[in-house]
Write a structure and sequence with these properties.
This protein is of the alpha/beta class. It has 2 domains: 142 residues, no CATH class; 202 residues, TIM Barrel (Alpha-Beta Barrel), CATH 3.20.20.370. It is 31% helix and 23% strand. The strands form 2 sheets. Strands 6, 7, 8, 9, 10, 11, 12, 13 and 14 form a 9-stranded parallel sheet that branches. Strand 12, helix 8 and strand 13 form a beta-alpha-beta unit. Helix 1 runs parallel beside helix 3, helix 4 packs parallel to helix 5 and helix 8 packs across helix 9. The longest helix is centred in the first third of the chain and has 20 residues. The radius of gyration is 36 Å and the shape is elongated. The relative contact order is 0.11.
């Protein structure tokens, strides 16, 4: 126990880390208890008979200002207070409510703000109580409430780690409606790569749209324009491709296609870029200015065990890079292996997503 006239030590309680508001209330309460008994280090509060006297009333505003100034000198940034008039008759004053959002690591500053009240006025008192998930420190002078420090700790929510994401395109489709039905029946947002101007191109695209599956236009990689284009000037226009494959969100083509200043698809690429459609493929010979994805992995046609091994490697790539894209042919082995892999991926916290979910559009300033 401290001797009279000697400042009592605060103790190691101030050094305790308080992750919860209740723990903080306990710490502040210790400081408040120190301040509630100023007789240990300063004169006792004015007697009740003196409260309300003319001299006391005249000095009361200055005493409130001294307490408020002490709070502002503390190393804690105080917000603008909510002001409330109190009292009646000749005794009137303004109560200040400071609503303080504490960030992690600001606990010492909060404790210092309460400690700053010590010695601000002989009649200052402070009491602390938990309220509304935080701590209210009520500051009084001679028993009259003049300020409230309402501390609320900002909860830090750590976001869960991002799951690896996979986009799988089954292509080419458009020749067989039955195969397309198998793809849309899979338990995941598998993307339909539809080759334009095939017997069932439009029907497959409409089927995918009906089942909330993304559709992309799947192009071959010809060395020259076909001998009989659907109409004169077909190749320079993306509109005809999109008319043949409605609801398409992008373009996909085989690895190694030339998309620079030469080649049959050069104007198609320019339009893809202009419309910011998804671009899937290895674009050699020109810059990737469209909403491009990383180079897709090709699932080679093989026996089911070999396809399953390729799908496993695809998952490892997604775990390593955060995401991956694969294109597989609609063969029995690929569809069977993918059907088995989809629920396994879901159980392993791997997200199968549409291709548009992986796009990172290039800013207009960089175009």
């Amino acid at each position: 126990m401290a001797r009279r006239g000697e400042r009592p030590p605060i103790g190691l309680a101030w050094l305790i880390t308080w992750p919860l508001s209740a723990a903080f209330a306990a710490l502040v309460f210790l400081a408040a208890e120190e301040i509630r008994h100023p007789g240990r280090q300063a004169a006792a509060p004015a007697p009740a008979a003196a409260v309300g006297g003319s001299e006391w009333i005249a000095n009361f505003p200055e005493r409130i200002a001294a307490v408020d100034a002490a709070l502002h000198r503390a190393p804690l940034r105080l917000p603008s207070p909510v002001m409330e008039d109190r009292g009646s008759g000749p005794l009137r004053w303004t109560h200040r409510l400071y609503e303080i959002q504490l960030q992690p690591g600001e606990q010492p500053q909060a404790e210092a703000a309460v400690e700053a009240l010590r010695g601000a006025d002989p009649g200052v008192t402070a009491t602390a109580e938990t309220a509304g998930g935080g701590t209210d420190v009520r500051v009084g002078i001679d028993g009259l409430l003049v300020s409230t420090l309402r501390f609320r700790v900002v909860e830090v929510v750590t976001p869960p780690p991002l799951k690896p994401r996979l986009a799988v395109v089954i292509a080419p489709l458009g020749d067989d409606l039955r195969v397309a039905r198998q793809v849309v029946a899979m338990e995941g947002p598998v993307v339909l790569g539809v080759r334009p101007f095939r017997p069932f191109s439009r029907e497959v695209a409409e089927l995918g749209h009906m089942f909330d599956r993304e559709v992309v236009v799947q192009l071959d990689c010809p060395k020259a324009p076909p001998p009989d284009p659907p109409c004169e000037g077909f190749w320079p226009h993306l509109d005809l491709l999109l008319q043949s494959v409605p609801h398409a969100v992008g373009i996909s083509w085989e690895s190694g296609c030339v998309c620079g200043k030469t080649g049959p698809y050069r104007d198609v690429v320019a339009e893809v870029d202009q419309r910011q459609l998804v671009f899937i493929g290895d674009c050699k010979g020109g810059p990737k200015r469209a909403a491009a994805l990383t180079k897709p992995a090709v699932i080679a046609d093989a026996p089911p065990d070999a396809v399953a091994a390729q799908l496993g490697a695809l998952v490892e790539q997604a775990r390593s890079d955060g995401s991956a894209v694969a294109i597989g042919a609609p063969t029995d082995a690929t569809l069977e292996s993918l059907n088995q892999a989809l629920p396994e991926w879901r159980a392993a916290e791997v997200d199968v997503v549409p291709v548009s979910a992986l796009v990172q559009p290039i800013a207009l300033s960089a175009r």
